[in-house]
Design goal:
Number of helices of chain A: 22
Number of strands of chain A: 20
CATH class of the largest domain in chain B: Alpha Beta
CATH architecture of the largest domain in chain A: 3-Layer(aba) Sandwich
CATH superfamily of the largest domain in chain A: Thiamin diphosphate (ThDP)-binding fold, Pyr/PP domains
Largest interface: A-B, 20 and 21 residues
Number of helices of chain B: 4
Strand content of chain B: 35-45%
Oligomer: heterodimer
Number of domains of chain B: 2
Helix content of chain B: 25-40%
Number of strands of chain B: 8
CATH topology of the largest domain in chain A: Rossmann fold
Largest sheet of chain B: 4 strands, antiparallel
Strand content of chain A: 15-25%
Distance between the termini of chain B: 17 Å
CATH topology of the largest domain in chain B: Alpha-Beta Plaits
Structural class of chain A: alpha/beta
Chain lengths: ~575, ~150
């Protein structure tokens, strides 16, 4: 049925049609028509952010916590350029986000008009797809396609650039259009021949390991990972993005692999005879620099929804292109039938014993009793205080790796971190998005003093919109991870990593109206968290940690998986 | 050599060439033109890379929303053509020789002045290479080539 609508009204109808309940944004000149309609729109909650980068991170955090598509809005020119870091972050971690940007009127495009930038060309390499809408009539189709593309296949970012006149113009239009893009057919169902081959290899294996990446979380396939691991007595190693794909206290879980991973996890990756890698792109932070040391003796089965990830970084033996949940379910079904015929599982007693031993080794690796690294003891204590439903977000650097290493994540979507792009300033706005998506759960950002200063202005957003998150600043007055590298590999020459003048974070937070407290001893954390949660407001806990704390063990530059340094602190 | 069927949208060329730039792959030749289907264009892209690079490129191109079809072509299973326009110095005493050589390559005279001759030659790239090399001998004033178009043999 045709209706007479303005472009802005079509956009809002489209958003509601896609189930959007909340958007994170900042208005601007090119978006006046849209905001004019949004102001009266009761079906969509708009959260006014204080920086466009935070709008994108908040939409991203919302998406990662809820499995729904996050939406952010920014105006033309600087609004759009500020959005770029946030969009690149979401795209690198395959998080479904739709961004709407204002643009100068179509007639002014290319004239270097006020607040004009070519958002379309600028965001091409950091989005899954983008649109520049030149006719109001195209809006229903574009909005529908944007959400379809962002939320299917390998999820990602889609940007829609909206010139001012396209939003203002009124047209008679049928908004109920569902035209799929002709060149986009994401493959989700795995090839059954490949599944059979994979099962052959898994059945014959004596030392199987499952590597669970972010794709497991994205496809909601955690349960399948656990079931399959238990059927096979396979050890489970996760990537940073896969943290939470299996409860980390599960006896088959060996924690995170890679550069700052758990020593037993890396050991298992290098010793296994079959590696079932699910939803991972074998990033350099996982494989180490010497890829020939990565699972050198293993037959590698690789499940990924993106065919372009097959054989990109690591050559694999059995590729399976498809959705992680669909592929794992198919493997489980096939394996069940196979085991029924052969009368039960072939025992892997020796491997089972070793996996359990390695799991215990993991526990001792993250035992911080008597540890001289205050950061490690702090994060360990935070893990004791918070409940299993708490969503952790992280900034990037030492705080992120301390959290990844020492914090036990028990459920999927409960550990949210910028893995691919490694964006400082991500954790706090992502926490805002996560809290908006899951208002009944606690959300805690593990931050560093360097990272937090990059996006802390959005404390105002929290107070204004009554969004309660807890920020734990690991305050060491350094850009800690770079300092660590300078200490270990650049003769302690701390080139521009000392944060000479930093604010008093307690006063800073209080000036926004937040609850704030300084914590100097891990044993005081429980009281501090109690105060923070009871304050009913966003809280900032300024944790004073060791200036020269280091995240160890680690793979040094140029090293392979088996060449970790600092292993002595693993208590093994 | 890759043949692509793409949606004829503004920006599609930037998107495709940008994919190559982003993956640090050099394009040797690229042509775009309308094709038998309305709203779609056909592109022929030639890259100089390893088997593995070519496989990555093919998959990454497939991931682009506006790319409908990706097909790898080899010179054995495709008809390949390049168009060359060439302006050569033609002094009176060399003019006859130039024309004779051009004729033997099947090049057509498009323009002639007292001091120059301009030829058109559409052929396989290697044959054009040879024609150009010979014409260098007389002094090429301007040369341009369209890039490679390829169509699969049945």
């Amino acid at each position: 049925m045709k209706k007479n609508l303005s472009g802005a009204e079509i956009v809002l109808e489209g958003l509601k049609g896609e189930g959007v309940e909340v958007v994170f944004g900042i208005p601007g000149g090119a978006l006046l028509d849209l905001y004019n309609m949004l102001y009266d729109e009761e079906g969509i909650r708009h959260i006014l952010m204080r920086h466009e980068q935070c709008a994108a991170h908040a939409a991203d955090g919302y998406a990662r916590a809820s499995a729904k598509t996050g939406v952010c809005i920014a105006t033309s020119g600087p609004g759009a350029t500020n959005l770029v870091t946030g969009l690149a972050t979401a795209q690198m971690d395959s998080s479904p986000v739709v961004a709407l940007t204002g643009q100068v009127p179509t007639a002014a495009i290319g004239s270097d008009a006020f607040q004009e930038t070519s958002t379309f060309t600028l965001t091409m390499p950091i989005t899954k797809h983008n649109f520049l809408v030149k006719r109001t009539e195209d809006l229903p189709k574009v909005i529908h396609q944007a959400f379809y593309i962002a939320s299917t296949g390998r999820k990602g970012v889609v940007l829609i650039d909206l010139p001012k006149d396209v939003l203002a113009e009124r047209v008679d239009i049928d908004t109920d259009v569902h035209v799929k893009p002709p060149g986009y057919n994401p493959k989700t169902e795995p090839n059954i021949m490949q599944i059979k081959k994979a099962v052959d290899v898994l059945v014959a294996s004596s030392e199987p390991v499952i590597l669970a990446g972010g794709g497991v979380i994205s496809a909601n396939a955690s349960e399948e990972v656990r079931v399959l691991a238990e059927m096979l007595q396979a050890a489970v190693v996760t990537t940073l993005m896969g943290k939470g794909a299996i409860p980390e206290d599960h006896p088959l879980c060996l924690g995170m692999g890679g550069m700052h991973g758990h020593y037993p996890a890396n050991k298992a990756l290098s010793e296994c005879d079959v590696l079932l890698a699910v939803g991972t792109r074998f990033s350099d932070r996982l494989t180490g620099w010497k890829t020939e040391q990565f699972a050198p003796d293993a037959k590698i089965i690789h499940i990924d929804i993106d065919a372009a990830e097959i054989n990109k970084n690591i050559q694999v033996h059995i590729p399976i292109v498809g959705d992680a949940k669909a592929a794992l379910s198919a493997i489980i079904r096939n394996l069940e039938r196979r085991l029924e015929k052969s009368g039960g599982t072939s025992p892997r007693n020796e491997w089972e014993r070793r996996v359990r031993e390695m799991h215990r080794m993991c526990e001792s690796c993250i035992n911080t009793d008597g540890d001289d690294m205050l950061s490690a003891r702090m994060i360990k204590e935070i893990g004791r205080i918070l409940n299993d439903d708490t969503i952790i977000t992280t900034e990037v650097g030492q705080c992120q790796m301390f959290a990844a290493h020492f914090y036990m994540t028990k459920k999927p979507r409960n550990f949210i971190s910028s893995g691919g792009l490694g964006t400082m300033g991500f954790g706090f706005p992502a926490a805002i998005g996560a809290k908006v998506a899951c208002p009944d759960r606690d959300v805690v950002d593990i931050a560093g003093d360097g990272s937090f200063l990059m996006t802390c202005q959005d404390l105002a957003t929290c107070i204004e919109n009554d969004i309660q998150v807890v920020v734990c600043i690991f305050d060491n007055r350094y850009l800690g991870m770079v300092r660590q590298w300078q200490e270990l590999f650049f003769e302690r020459k701390y080139a521009h990593t000392h944060l000479g003048v930093t604010p008093d974070f307690v006063k800073l937070a209080e000036s926004f109206g937040c609850y704030a407290e300084r914590v100097e001893r891990p044993e005081d954390l429980r009281e501090a968290f109690k105060n923070a949660f009871e304050s009913g407001k966003t809280a900032v806990l300024d944790l004073i940690v060791g200036k020269e704390d280091k995240v160890l063990p680690m793979i040094p530059p140029g090293g392979g998986l088996t060449e970790m340094i600092g292993v002595e602190r693993c208590n093994i | 050599m890759i043949s692509l069927l793409v949606e004829d949208n503004p920006g599609v060329l930037a998107r495709i060439s940008g994919m190559f730039t982003r993956r640090a792959i050099n394009i040797t030749s690229l042509t775009v033109s309308p094709c038998e289907k309305r709203g779609l264009s056909r592109m022929t892209v030639v890259i100089n890379g390893s088997e593995r690079e070519l496989e990555q490129v093919r998959k990454q191109l497939n991931n682009l929303i506006e790319v409908i079809q990706v097909r790898e072509l080899s010179s054995e299973d495709a008809i390949v053509r390049d168009l060359c326009l060439l302006k050569v110095s033609a002094k009176k005493e060399q003019r006859a020789e130039i024309l004779q050589l051009a004729e033997s390559y099947g090049a057509r005279v498009l323009d002639a002045t007292l001091s120059t001759l301009t030829f058109e030659l559409a052929d396989e790239p290697r044959k054009i290479d040879r024609f150009v090399e010979i014409m260098r001998h007389f002094g090429i004033k301007q040369l341009l080539r369209s890039g490679i178009c390829a169509i699969a043999r049945d």
